[in-house]
Amino acid sequence: METKFKILLVDDEQDFIEPIAFWLEAKGYSVRMALNGEDGLKLIEQETPDIVLLDINMPVMNGTDTLKNIRIKHQTLPVIMITAELEQLPIFQDLGISGFFPKGGTLTQLEQLLDPVIRIHARMKPSK
């Protein structure tokens, strides 16, 4: 049996991530959610996801610090930043993000962003 592609959503706005999680699960993905960067890092250590969708502005630990911590142990883990603040994009590109999803974006836009990242990651992922 094929393992489901694992996606971690890290965002403090439950009203924002719950519909996305529902949509991703309906598409066949395994989805975990965290409401801040610190909890997101704990989930990554418990069971490394295949991709992370990470908000920038969160309490406890913001997206910038979370991404820096992810890169310490997981240099190649695909991370897509969720943001309305495009002026911060160069900082995240330097930390190796796979893309960004605007806070007001549509599910179609998210799918167009996820598809190539997932295809590339699936080819690079060692088979178990």
Mean pLDDT: 86
Tell me the radius of gyration.
13 Å
Give unreliable regions as ranges: none
| CATH domain class name | Alpha Beta
> What is the share of helical residues?
40-55%
Number of domains: 1
CATH architectural arrangement? 3-Layer(aba) Sandwich
Strand content: 15-25%
User: How would you sum up the major sheet?
Assistant: 5 strands, parallel
In total, the number of strands is 5
Give the N-terminus to C-terminus distance in angstroms. 11 Å
Overall SS class: alpha/beta
Shape: globular
Describe the structure.
It is a single chain. The chain has 128 residues and is of the alpha/beta class. The protein is globular and about 30 Å long. Helix 1 links the parallel strand 1 and strand 2. It is built from 5 helices and 5 strands, in the order βαβαβαβαβα. It has helices spanning 14-26, 37-46, 63-73, 89-94, 107-124; strands spanning 6-10, 30-34, 51-55, 79-83, 99-102. The protein has one domain: 3-Layer(aba) Sandwich (Rossmann fold).
